[in-house]
Amino acid sequence: MKIYLGSRDYRPEGYLTVDIDPAHGPDIVADVTDLRQIASDSVQEVCASHILEHLPWPMAFKALSEWARVLEPGGRLRLAVPDLALLGAMIADGRNAWTAAALVFGVGRLENPLEAHQFGYTEPMLRDMLRALGFGDFAWWKHDVHDASNGWMPVESNGKVAISLNLEGRKLRQPAVAPAGLLDALLADRMAPFDQVYAAVVARDASLQGALPEDDSRLTQQLHMDLIEARMRILHLEDELQRKADAAR
Asked: pTM score, two decimals?
């Protein structure tokens, strides 16, 4: 089984469609953050084309963890979001800044509040979250559905630039850190970088010390720094206790 999330009026061949609005006639009416109608490890592919940016942070991570849950081992997740790094660079350089800003924020909200963009992502941000959920084997993807994953934006000199960040990953393992607990930590510190929150969760639980993927150097480095800081705090407390003990003699 393959599922296509936030389908609206799209009907990709070979996919079951999922949408929160029954007016679109999807195969499954559901919120993409809660796919309880779909069994765990039962889906070959999840396609989420320009869905994630419509969810407030960190509920977007909750959605990703739910998509990971329903995927079978080796299953494929296909994500597409506005390329925040590209659009931000275009705005900074003044290259069609109005259109780029409109794509960042989602000006379709005027007719439909659900069209508003709640957050934005770069490729490293997506990879950090997906690695934490057990994904790897990342690649670029494209399909024949004429949805926003095939979006282009006109630029000067009659040119155009692809504005969709399309990232595919495979579910290689179950998450080492419980997604629900990680979501709680993200909710508690919404401004913190994801990798720092993840590393802090791991650092608090000795049983998770091997939870970071070996190839994830940034997360590994953050965990290493957190552990060093924790050890320094312990040494400081031990010194304080010793000083007080000496003074009491």
From this structure: 0.81
